[in-house]
Design a protein that fits this description.
34 strands, eleven-stranded mixed beta sheet, 17-stranded antiparallel beta sheet, alpha+beta, 989 residues
């Protein structure tokens, strides 16, 4: 048995000691205990000798023995839809960075680690609840339940760490480092200073480990060296490995598949003149083929055990072609069903030394071939091939003057029991052999040293040097070590300020959770638009409805333009439950009396219904969409009036009556301006005058045309009467037609101001145009489309409100808002509609109002984005979710919206093959990957069901008022005896 204890100074110092557990030597030998000795030594010497020598660490460097190291955390880069050129650039990135380190005359030791860190979902949920404007109790519970869900699944995040040895604290301490040996900082007469006084010597004698500290001036010099190394590696876009991350990286190999404690320390104690923190405490058994790791629960004392083993890459193909699917690091991460940690120790070799080594290898092979020829034997093809490759390597080195590296790649797997560990080992060996043509071997009686080699810092000596490979620096990049599946919200820091947060869980990209919040884009100064595109039945409505629920419950003021009443139906179900299936429910909903004493339908969730308003616009009063009522000001109203009349009448008829209409508008607006001037002359302020004087109306414009026509007839002006006759006839009829009548009233009244969490504006009976080209719309479709455009204008103005007091913090600020536009293609099909959306998207970012465009067609959204790019502006749609497309032509129109070429074969094929509930996402960082939407709860699945066949059954059960009582989809769809929470997997729809 052995125990490792990591003790850290309160500020920066820490020590690692390995202390033998008390047991008989016979028992130690039977367990194969590491560190067993054949001769006795004084206790203090034994303890100092067994100590793992971590001596110092801060957020830039750490000291291991006499060696000084620095570390970088490399970001994951999703590569799923990169083309060959982009993949090549991704593969070459690490090599370009490492080449900068090998410019000197010394070898440079490096250490690459790929490990998996459990996502601290509870912390995520608490932070998300903390940034919400006015979260309901159900919203807080919703995120906490989702945190529990992620932890049940065991969601993990890939961590890619690159450690670089800067040099040695002693001038004669080693031959590797990034500086010339004579330039390395050191402290005379010695860097490590011992005990300082009688009490310190007594403490050192008692513990067997001497207290020590480093000179601040030397620390500062090494820190500057580390900064320069980070600058030389800036193309890797890594961040410095912090002390907290280093502690976790040390703990990780010692926990196997057990959770690593998130606490920065486990306990503290006095040690000499400094305070030291205990950060690692474990015991284990060194077996022939694996290590048994024991951890103890701090509260209950219960022992938890994990089994871990390390395999070495012993044989690689003689020649390999770079391919995405067989890149070794990417393959281990994405094509194996269990976590495989990667440990790659490598030494960068300068050009001259690399050339000498390659020359020597070639010479040895040539000598061997000559010896065979001189002895009368024919050299075999394998040897001849080796000579050829060695010559090619020497030629490449000479031509490109490139450094090289000597590397060994190891793979570590862990499991809760030996049987599962052995199964995973066999699977890993088989998959690597079949798919990569790589042979993995498990060294015996060396597992403890292989485990130690995973710890940051200098590695122990390993007698497995035959598995070292001399190769080009490109080998690391060719494995695509940073290829991952991370998508979604990614907060960033600018000028020391954190922008954004990690939003709600929306689904999974491979094994990684995907989080998204509407306002993370604007928070990062990105565009204020979200696009959800896809054919009917692909799952776009479920995602949109889920986001509507989450955002409105968080305190975002949400307004929905809901032509199909999907959003209204969701609100009805969450408020009234199974009553929505009653035959009389729809009549009361249309009458607007649900929840009132006049209706027999009362909410089962009164709190939810109290914050919901559903407005049936077509059954409302005439004139509610008058352009001067819904526009920001009178000039804007005049422009909107022209757009609406053009839409109602069609381009051809509008051009025939355009002159009389413009003259009528000029007359009406002229009278309004005269009234404003007169009010100001009478002593009113300009603002008060605008409030007192009624705005123009579209009804007045029609009356003006009619009066002009009557005057022309009365005065015998046949030419004028001829031009005005068609105008007065078309406009008079227009005031009586469906949809159009919403824009005409003698005294139009605006809708009540939107003050609830959710306002849903429905257009019951709305029929979307069958054709995407407005030129092919019939009169009824034109009327409906123009009314919808006016509703969007109305919605964008209703969200344009000033500052409010935050009900949680009491601070005054802009409340986040969201405008959801279903069937958005009807609006964006026309140029005036696209102009409207451009204004809404631009203004929305300033007012914290995000516009969500839900549509079956992407071409118009692409035109909006392209026009912004051509004008020098930033794209306004910060995130796109693209669901299944029915044809290659439709997919090619979606590809540019995802930031990919319209002829991208990967994207076009993927968009046509997507299953229901699976989409391609382009996030705010322009990353593109596949996401499986996860609704998580049975109640959300029922509420977001828009299928008329399955919805009645799913909505036949009342949803519990409290989210704490909601049911995970897993629990609803699996028998308790078939699957436990420990083996749960995400359920997608």
């Amino acid at each position: 048995m052995f125990m490792l204890i990591l003790l850290g100074g309160a500020v920066a110092f820490f020590v690692v000691a390995m202390i033998m557990a008390s047991s008989s030597s016979k028992k130690q030998q039977s367990n194969g205990t590491a560190g067993t000795r054949t001769r006795q030594a004084p206790a203090s010497a034994r303890r100092e000798d067994l100590r793992l020598p971590y001596r110092y660490a801060d957020d830039m460097i750490f000291v291991h023995g006499d060696s000084v190291w620095t570390g970088l955390v490399l970001p994951n880069a999703i590569d799923e839809y990169l083309n060959s050129t982009e993949l090549q650039a991704m593969a070459e990135g690490p090599a370009r960075g490492l080449l900068n380190l090998a410019r000197g005359d010394r070898n440079v030791d490096c250490h690459y680690r790929k490990v998996y860190q459990p996502i601290t979902a509870l912390t995520w949920a608490e932070e998300l609840n903390a940034v919400a404007w006015d979260p309901t109790e159900n919203y807080k519970a919703y995120n906490l339940r989702k945190a529990d869900y992620q932890e049940r699944i065991g969601a993990k995040r890939e961590r890619n760490i690159l450690l670089v040895k800067l040099g040695s604290l002693k001038r004669s301490g080693g031959s590797t480092g990034v500086l010339r040996q004579d330039d390395e900082p050191y402290d005379e007469p010695g860097l490590l200073r011992g005990v300082r006084g009688t009490a310190d010597r007594a403490a050192a004698t008692a513990t067997g480990v001497a207290d020590e500290h480093l000179s601040p001036s030397v620390i500062a010099e090494w820190t500057q060296v580390a900064v320069e190394v980070h600058e030389s590696l800036e193309n890797l876009k890594g961040t410095p490995l912090t002390r907290e991350e280093l502690v976790w990286l040390i703990r990780k190999p010692l926990h196997g598949d057990l959770p690593v404690p998130p606490e920065p320390v486990l306990g503290s104690r006095a040690w000499g003149p400094d305070q030291f923190d205990l950060v690692v405490d474990f015991s284990g058994e060194n077996r022939k083929t694996h290590i048994v790791l024991h951890q103890y629960d701090e509260v209950t004392g219960e022992r938890q055990t994990s089994y871990t083993t390390t395999l070495v890459a012993a044989n690689w193909p003689a020649e390999t072609r770079f391919r995405q699917s067989t890149a070794w690091a990417r393959y281990a991460a994405q094509h194996v069903d269990f976590p495989v940690e990667i440990d790659m120790r490598f030494t960068l070799i300068p050009y001259s030394k690399f050339k000498d080594r390659a020359d020597k290898i070639r010479g040895n092979l040539v000598d061997e071939m000559n010896d065979m020829a001189n002895s009368g034997r024919t050299p075999d093809t394998k040897l001849a091939s080796q000579v050829t490759r060695a010559q090619e390597l020497v030629d490449d080195i000479e031509e490109h003057k490139m450094p090289g590296m000597e590397a060994q790649i190891r793979f570590t797997i862990s499991a809760p029991d030996v049987k599962e560990l052995e199964r995973r080992r066999r699977v890993l060996e088989m998959q690597f052999k079949q798919d990569l043509k790589v042979t993995l071997l498990r060294p015996t009686r060396m597992q403890w040293r292989l485990l130690q080699a995973q710890l940051p810092g200098d590695a122990p000596k390993l007698p497995i040097s035959p598995y070292l490979r001399l190769q080009e620096v490109e080998q690391l990049g060719a494995g695509l070590p940073t290829a991952g599946t991370e998508l979604g919200d990614n907060p960033e820091t600018r000028s020391g300020r954190r922008l954004g947060w990690v939003g709600n869980l929306v689904g999974w990209a491979g094994k990684m959770p995907v989080h998204y919040s509407l306002h993370v884009g604007p928070a990062r100064n990105d565009g204020g638009g979200l696009a959800i595109v896809g054919a009917s039945g692909g799952g776009k409505s479920s995602l949109a409805l889920q986001k509507f629920y989450e955002e409105s419950e968080s305190g975002v003021r949400c307004l929905v333009i809901d032509p199909k009443t999907d959003f209204a139906q969701m609100c009805y179900y969450l408020a009234f439950g199974s009553q929505v299936n009653d035959t009389g429910f729809a009549a009361d909903a249309e009458a607007g009396i649900l929840g009132t004493p006049a209706s027999r339908f009362q909410p089962v969730n009164r709190e939810f219904w109290a914050e919901t308003e559903v407005v049936d616009l077509l059954k409302g009063q005439a004139g509610v969409l008058d352009p001067w009522v819904i526009a920001r000001d009178v000039p804007s109203g005049r422009l909107l009036a022209e757009s609406m009349l053009r839409g109602f009448l069609g381009d051809e008829d509008y051009q025939r009556v355009r002159l009389p209409v413009i003259e009528a508008m000029a007359a009406v607006v002229g009278r309004y301006n005269s009234a404003i001037r007169q009010a100001v002359e009478q002593g009113l302020s300009a603002r008060d005058a605008e409030v007192r004087v009624p705005r123009p109306t579209l009804w007045q414009v029609v009356d003006e045309v009619v009066e002009s026509y009557d005057h022309a007839v009365a005065t015998g002006d046949r030419e004028a009467a001829k031009d005005l006759k068609l105008a007065q006839m078309l406009l008079t009829e227009l005031r009586t037609l469906p949809y159009a009548r919403l824009a005409f009233a003698e005294t139009p009244q605006p809708l009540s101001s939107m003050r609830k969490r959710r306002t849903v504006i429905t257009l019951r009976g709305f029929q979307s145009p069958a054709a995407s080209d407005p030129r092919n719309w019939n009169p009824a479709e034109r009327l409906a489309a123009t009314a919808l455009m006016a509703v969007v204008e109305l919605g964008s103005q209703m969200l344009d409100v000033g500052y409010e007091k935050n009900p949680v913090t009491g601070e005054v600020g802009l409340r986040p808002k969201a405008l959801f536009v279903d069937e958005a293609y009807v609006v964006t099909a026309t140029e005036s509609g696209r102009d409207l959306m451009r204004r809404a998207l631009k203004q929305g970012r300033s007012y914290l109002a995000v516009t969500v465009l839900i549509t079956q067609q992407a071409i118009d959204l692409v035109q909006i984005e392209d026009s912004e790019a051509r004008s020098g502006g930033a794209n306004q749609i910060h995130t796109v979710f693209a669901f299944k497309q029915k044809s290659a032509q439709e997919a090619s129109l979606v590809a540019p919206l995802l930031g990919r070429p319209e002829d991208d074969p990967k994207v076009i094929a993927a968009l046509q093959e997507l299953r229901t509930g699976v989409c391609l996402q382009r996030d705010a960082d322009k990353r593109v990957g596949t996401v499986a939407v996860d609704l998580v709860f049975k109640e959300i699945l029922a509420a977001t069901d828009t299928n008329g066949t399955t919805r009645p059954a799913r909505q036949g059960i009342d949803p519990p008022q409290s989210v704490w009582e909601w049911t995970f989809l897993q629990e609803a769809e699996e028998a308790p005896t078939q699957q436990t929470a420990a083996t749960a997997e995400p359920v997608t729809v």
